Amino acid sequence: MTAYADLRAASFPADLPALRQLFLGYIEALCTEMPENRDAITQKYSPEAVEAWLLKFEQLHRPPLGALLIAWKGETPLACGMLRSFAPGIAEVQRLYVTPAARGLGLARQISLALMDHARSNGFHTIRLDTARPLTAAIALYRSLGFKERSPYHTESPQMDHFILYFERPL
Question: Taking the domain 6-170, which CATH number applies?
């Protein structure tokens, strides 16, 4: 099967406009899916801090231990996913997002598998992620990829603890 989109590692600073667009879409999607948690979401991802987050992404997800992938259709960014080193031997998937127009095309699975391959090839033995309870499609994807629910493994965003689920799988 031919991939619908071209999956590439983000290039800084060239891809910052695309990453900004995707990150703002990610924040808005979270707020739309969970309007009752908008305050908690925007406390973590405040609109004023978007530029600082973008700069932080370059550091957090720098290869070889990290990755920041963007799915493109021509010049249009459709999706992204990020990987970071969480602890020795343990990687974490972060901010997997697909634009509304590109949902249902398998991009989240494509990015997830690529991030898992990247982690495995760079010596990680375990991969973790967290997601929000209302994001049932994401939860179904992660379970289909072999992730199992686990106890919380971080407390980075205590204002969001009440709606976060944690997952893990061996690589």
Answer: 3.40.630.30
